[in-house]
Each structure stands twice: as structure tokens, then as C-alpha cells.
Amino acid sequence: MSEDTKQDDQALADEWAAALEEQTPDNESDADPWAEALAEQAESEQSTQSQANPAPVAKLDDDSKPRSDVDLDMVLDIPVTISMEIGRTKINIRNLLQLSQGSVVELDRLAGEPMDVLVNDTLIAHGEVVVVNDKFGIRLTDVISAAERIKKLR
């Protein structure tokens, strides 16, 4: 090593030593400000915990039991779509385009089989077609129970 390199290294070491001496606290007041802040926070938390009272807990109602005082007037005016389905079938587009007046489309139900009654596309009953005063109607023969409808939703 050359003499200049040794002098440069010594000068650099001296600068580092001086910088480190500046960093070290001379007295307690120059101590780490983070340590002081953490100590203050810990003291304030301890005093707060000793003074704090737990909040009262209100008893919640059990909603699992049916209530008789429920007001259903709000939902009685909600419109729903009810439809009766005689049957279904699948055909390709070629046959669909060839349909004309008088064409017959075969359905997946037999004659005399009950129709499906759907409310908002959900099966709620089965029934048979009736004619009353020259108008078609449906007589419900089997209504799906509420429990069964709920099972289908899940």
C-alpha cells in the first residue's frame, strides 16, 4: 500500500469515529426520542386501562323464533309474475324457422298431466286446466310446501 492510501484510510476512519461520537448521547436528555415516546405511550395506556370501565352489553333478541307481530303489509303489494307451463321442448334453429301457422310442436308432457305453476320462475304448485265462462284457468291440485321451496333455494 502506498503512503497516500494509508493516510486516506486513516482520515476516513477518523471522520467515521468523529461522526459516531456525535451520534452517542452526552446526557440523558439526548436519549433516543423513540424510546421516550414509547415509554409515554405505555404509561398512558396503563393509566387508561386502570380507569376504564367495561361497556354494558345489551341483550339481543333471538330472531330464530317466529314472531307473530311481524307487519307483512309492506310486502303484500310487491308485484310478482305468475305463469303456467304446459310443457317444454328443444328444437334446432332450422326447425324453428320452418314453423308456420298450423304447425304442431311436441312437448315433453303427456295429455292430462298437471301443469306447473311458477311464480317468478320458481315452481310453487301443479294444476289442471279448466274453462270457466269461455276463459282458461287452472285448478291447483298440489301446492309445494314452504319448507320444500326453501330447500330448493339453498
Strand and helix layout:
Blueprint: H1 3-23, H2 33-51, H3 73-76, E1 82-85, H4 93-97, E2 115-119, E3 122-132, E4 135-143, H5 146-153
Antiparallel strand pairs: 1-2, 2-3, 3-4
Question: Could you write a compact summary of the structure shown?
Answer:
Helix content is 37%, strand content 19%. The protein has 154 residues and is of the alpha+beta class.
Fold and architecture overview:
With 154 residues, the chain is an alpha+beta fold. It has a domain at 80-153: Surface presentation of antigens (SPOA) (Roll), CATH 2.30.330.10. Helix content is 37%, strand content 19%. The protein has 5 helices and 4 strands; from the N terminus they run H-H-H-E-H-E-E-E-H. Strand 2 (115-119) and strand 3 (122-132) form a beta hairpin. The longest helix has 21 residues, at 3-23. The mean pLDDT is 79.
Specify the CATH class of one domain: Mainly Beta
C-alpha-based Rg, rounded: 43 Å
In total, the number of strands is: 4
Structural class: alpha+beta
- Oligomerization state of this entry? single chain
Strand neighbour order, sheet with most strands: 1-2-3-4
Biggest sheet: strands, sense, closure? Answer: 4 strands, antiparallel
Low-confidence segments? none
Q: β content, as a range?
A: 15-25%
**Mean pLDDT, as a whole number?**
79
Please name the CATH architecture of one domain. Answer: Roll
The amount of helix comes to 25-40%
Through-space gap between termini: 84 Å
Please tally the helical runs, counting DSSP H or I stretches of 4 or more residues: 5
Write out the CATH superfamily name of one domain.
SpoA-like
Order of helices and strands: HHHEHEEEH
| Morphology | elongated
